[in-house]
Every structure is written in C-alpha cells, then in structure tokens.
Write a structure and sequence with these properties.
It is built from twelve helices and four strands. The protein is mainly alpha-helical and 274 residues long.
C-alpha cells in the first residue's frame, strides 16, 4: 500500500503497488510506449538513429521503418532509460515538458527506482547525499591497506545498478567493507571476523586509548560500540550467500539506510587507522 491514499486515484496505484522500489516494469514500459507515440513527431527515424549512434545497439525495424514498440518493450533496462534521455532531446521544445512530466509520473506511479530531471537525465532515486557519502567513503579507503575494503564497497554499490539491483547485495558489500576495515585497524592476525565479541575485545581498547582525555570516555565509547554492534547484528544475516530459493531480499529503502550507516562506520574506522 502506498503511504498516502489519493481520493479519486486509481485503485491499483492506491493499493496494489509493489512494497519496494522496482528496477523494471512491463506496465511502465507499456505506458512509456503510448506516451512515446503521442509525443514523437513523424516516424521517429532521427530518434532511432540517435539510439544506434549513442548506445551502440541495433534498433528494431519493420522493412525500412523503425519498430519502436519492439525497442521499448525488449531493450535492456539501461538502454531503455538512456533512450528516455534521447527522446527528450529529440522532441520539440514545446513538448519537452509534457514528456518529462509523463515519464516522471510513470516512474512514480509504477514505483520505479528512478527520477527524470528536466533536461532528460535519468538518475537513481537514491538521493545525492547517498552518492556523496559513497564517494567520500571510497576516497577514505584510498590507502592500499584498505584495498580489499574498497573493492567490497564498490561491489556492493554495483547492487544499485538497474539490471542487478539488490538490497541484499548492497548490505552485503558494505558489511564486507566494514569488516575488512575493522580487521586492518585492529591489526593482522588479531581476529578473523567482525562480531560483537571481537569488537568489544579488540576495538574498545583502541578507542579508549584514542579518547583517553575526553570526559567520561568509557561511557561514550561503550555507547558508540553498542550502536556499532547493533548495526553488525542487523547487517549480518545478509552477509553469506545462500541458494537462490532461500534468498531473502532486503527492501531497498532499508538497505540504503543500512548502507549509509555502515559507510559512516567505514570512514570512522579508517580514520582510526591513520
């Protein structure tokens, strides 16, 4: 169910939408096709050639005419979203606003995880702050000691890609990055995994030493570790791979929240290791 029921809204959009954001949708594609034909002048030949030129894909055709229906229905999601941008570029100025408004409404009503900007660019719905957090965290792992952590984080962030979108994959990658950073900071051979016992045993002494001059340092460190250990417990079930039929996917909004918190701990731990 959506967060807010709209009086006069369609039943399906009020009650039958997916509880999590989707990376693709046949309904969305069907609606985009209809809007494309309503807003693309003439045969759309200039558009199809632009798709081939800019995306490097073969545009379907019937005889010597572009087969738009087949392209919008069957193209890979990344090509389809890129084609939305090319579509906005190719319509006349008086129709651009109509196209952007129509596609934006489709993304929202079909619960897709994308946002269309006025110039036609399609971006993930995850906000700019998350992007900046990701970039600053990767920069904080530039030291070669954190190479494994950086690779794990990069792998986790790939789970936001439209074709392979996975909340579980995002959490798993961030967890592995936190664990790798933790193991580097506490020292080689000290522990082989991240859990409450090892955090309390090996990380707490480092923090107490670091904040020895801070009033009530023990209490502050203890409280911080409680938060850290709670995050580890929350993320841990997504750490291990399982058979596909046993896979429990994480809702993307919860995954983004977990990942954002985890990246904060990565930057904190990497700072201790400076």
């Amino acid at each position: 169910m959506v967060d807010k029921i709209v009086e006069g809204g369609l039943f399906r959009q009020n009650y039958l939408r997916s509880p999590v954001k989707l990376s693709d949708s046949n309904r969305a594609r069907n609606r985009i096709i209809r809007n494309f034909f309503d807003n693309m002048p003439y045969s759309g030949g200039d558009f199809s050639r632009a798709v081939e030129r800019e995306l490097g894909v073969d545009y379907p055709s019937l005889g010597n005419r572009p087969f738009h229906d087949a392209f919008w229905r069957k193209s890979q999601i990344g090509d389809m979203l890129s084609a939305v941008t090319l579509w906005v570029r190719h319509v006349s100025d008086d129709k651009k606003q109509n196209v952007v408004a129509a596609v934006s409404r489709i993304f929202a009503e079909e619960n897709l995880h994308y946002r269309l900007y006025t110039q036609g660019g399609v971006h993930y719905l995850v906000d700019e702050e998350f992007h900046q957090t990701s970039e600053s965290t990767l920069e904080g792992l530039a030291d070669q000691r954190f190479g494994a952590a950086r690779a794990a984080l990069q792998e986790g962030l790939k789970a936001l890609a439209p074709v392979t979108q996975s909340g579980k994959g995002l959490i798993r990658g961030v967890f592995e990055a936190v664990e790798s950073t933790f193991l580097v900071v506490i020292g080689p051979g000290t522990a082989d995994r991240l859990n409450r016992q090892n955090a309390d045993k090996h990380l707490k002494p480092l923090l107490l030493e670091r904040y020895a001059g801070v009033p009530e340092a023990d209490d502050k460190v203890t409280r911080m570790l409680e938060t850290f250990n709670a995050w580890v417990k929350e993320a841990h079930p997504y750490r291990h791979g399982v058979a596909f039929e046993q896979r429990h996917e994480a809702p993307l909004d919860l995954a983004v929240l977990s990942a954002t918190t985890g990246m904060g701990f990565i930057r904190f731990l990497a700072g201790i290791g400076d």
